[in-house]
Amino acid sequence: MELVGVAVLAGFVLAFALVSRRLETTPVTGPMLFVGVGILLGSSGVDLLEVGMDQGTVRVLAEATLVLLLFTDAIRIDLRRLRDQIDLPARLLGIGLPLTVIAGTLLAVVILPGLGIWEAALVAAILSPTDAALGQAVVSNQKVPARIRQALNVESGLNDGIMLPVITLLLAATAAGVDLETPQYWARFAARQIGFGALVGIALGYGGGWLIVRFSNRGWMDGAFRQLATLAVGVAAFAAAESLGGNGFVAAFVAGLAFGAAAREHCDGVYDFAEDEGQLLALLTFLFFGAALAGPALSQLTWQIALYALASLTIVRMVPVALSLVRSGLHPVTVAYFGWFGPGGLASIVFGLFILEEADLPMGDDLFLVVTWTVLASVFLHGATSVALSERYASWFSRRVVEAMPEADEVEEMPTR
Question: Which terminal residue of the chain, N or C, has fewer Cβ atoms less than 10 Å from its own Cβ?
């Protein structure tokens, strides 16, 4: 990257920061601006940012951001508090998420030419996690019922970690081909990737949390270093699992859950970091996504990809969500609100990079092009509608609210990203 590009990029970050609060009430979101500026500054625009997602620094940024995202998202979810409000998240994650993957797989086989069942399943799985940060107003608008905001918040916080093992196995199956005569190989692969990752995450997450609690209570730790130590636990879990042949992303997610269970009272600093520095890392990843991936993809759109991307954001998400909420007592307007706000974002970008890393993957470039266009559409469609639709839903609810409506049930809220 040339220095003039760095200067322009720094100037844009400064300009965005100056008006960031004002933009919160407009249809323009941070991810929309950063992706758009990335396209403008990249090779498809004025060519000031000569970057590619295959470059080491950009890939490290994207993967580090995902590690941070998985770890802090998991920490935000208080499992003990979640037990008292598990109904809606359980429906969305236990029923809606698998049905979304199945629907996306079947549609990909029909619409996208040349895809086999494993490639189609891989694309559907990569696009299934949601990113609440793309439409922050949806989970931060205090006029929207807390139970609804909380369910979307928990869904977004957990579904990327839940899908990681599935994506890992599908990626391996797609690259190597599935030999049904060697189930032992796949059992060993799953045990190594997922088992080692989970065990390392539990050990380091809970152990690190236990140590931080003990030394903090003795007055031996400074507040700033307690925050750094917490983040170090997530990084250590990722690195240790990778060195042992496990999946580092699984380890980071499980470490966050374990850390939260061991040291819930010491997590506030992590929320602040995720809100500030973590958000900047995520926005920079969106910018490089625009420069290196979305820009070149603009000239490669086909009607099949466009149709699948739009279907992925609508019927592939909305129908499974509606089915998962049958007999929940929620009004159809609320069900539609849940269904629309399932944006695909940062996790799908980094999961998609796994495709590029796999040299032996058939149709890898085509698969990633589908992911790129779907995320690009989600960034702009969900971002542009988040403020307006959250306000309209809140206004509708305020006119109809009665204590008997399940939407009005009180819940204890958790931090949002």
Answer: N
